[in-house]
Amino acid sequence: MDMETTDVVIAGAGPTGLMLAYELRTAGIRVTLLDRLPGRTGESRAGGIHARTMEVLDQRGLLDRIHERGNPLPAGHFGGLRMDFSDLATRRPYALTVLQSVLEAELESSVTELGVDVAWSSPVVAVEQDTDGVEVTVEQPHGTRRIRAAYLVGCDGGRSTVRKLVGIGFDGTDATMTGMLADVELADPPTDRIFAQRNGPGDFSAIQFQPGWYRLLVQRHDLVLDRNTELTFAAFRDHFTEVAGTDFGMHSPRWVSHFGDAARQADRYREGRVFLAGDAAHIHFPAGGQGLNLGVQDAVNLGWKLAAALRADAADALLESYAAERYPVATRVLHNTRAQTALMRPGVHTDALRDTMRELLEVDQVRHHLGLMVTALDIRYPTESEHPLAGRRVPDADLSTDEGDTTVHALLRHARPVLLVLGDTDAPSVRGWTDRLDVRHAETETEHWTIPDLGDIPQPRAVLIRPDGYVAWATNDEVTTDLTDLLTRWFGPAATAVRDRAIA
Fold first, then answer.
1. Whether 420 and 446 share a structural domain
2. How many Cβ atoms are within 10 Å of 159's Cβ, its own excluded?
3. Where does a domain end: 214, 234, 260?
4. According to the model, what pLDDT value does residue 208 have?
């Protein structure tokens, strides 16, 4: 059996795996993308994306086609309580209802254009690694396939085979309730969108995603189904009718499924040359629509770091920063989804709690705090810098350059770091890094940038932006700082240093 070679094997071709494949191919990295399923199922567990995910897609020029197939909604929810997003500080202060199947189709098309095809019916069955690489064994219908790569990333879902094969633990809390959904047609549909209407032992929703069919959901807090239980359409209709008091004349089901509120997180995101991302690293109740978004953002964080390591641009410490940055983000999501589950339980005590929370959400500071958490606009990665931008996502400011008008996001299309110098400020020296870093000079018409959890801050004179759109460094002063240590930390030693090391 011949051994294939590649740079990175990605197990799992859902949104996380597809986004990671796009990031790596954009950086010129060879990718092999596998999935255990025989093909796309058309199933759409997730039904929307939030502002930060729209931003990271826009950074790569991927958002427009997806946006055309979605429907903007100016609000989200916390535990079924409406939260207005329309005044959040982003170009896209709304949620975009777009089916996961649509997102996957668009991402797969973009990945295919970069030369990567999904190998379906290709489950990973064995993983062996050494100090130089990892060998992946794949069972396919025509026989066994062996692939050697520098890295393997498990994006293969909550039951991740990769996670189990390398012995990473997955602790957390078991399910306490059951959610059920069905994509159906309705003979007697409701006149308005129904969302999380509570009644008896649970709550129900009826949401029209596309003309002619609806997604119905029912959540029962008096029932825990084993995750291997097959839910029939008849059983779903019975559960829905018991809670909602009607079945709206549901018929012609396209998909029926169930889920629980188990919340688990991998005890580490890396084992040697194997990484985890998306649901393979964390699962939780789908409250607030955060799961898909969390996985896509994992991929964008990890992608540029793997690319830098493969180019020998950066030390292993850069790869360690993936878990250091993303692990706390997922921990917070698990925490807030547990809180949302508690807010949705039946009973008079929860009724009183919901009334109190509804009043609190009328306070802008509370609504912003929870809204920014759900949309991931308030993330600040660990940083030693005291500048208010450092560690945060860069605002998508309008810019004027010698080449014409543009935006900050447009500067990030090629997944390279950018040193943005504003006004008549002299650029700091980045000699030795121009092979992997773009220096751009621009003007703006504003004196302030708005940060979602801070408000207006003075526009900086210079900003060093990582490929994932987060700020590594910024200054409001005339640039005199020696950036050597910072550039080396994030983007590896200067090119002259690399050559000298090779010669030695």
1. yes
2. 12
3. 260
4. 87
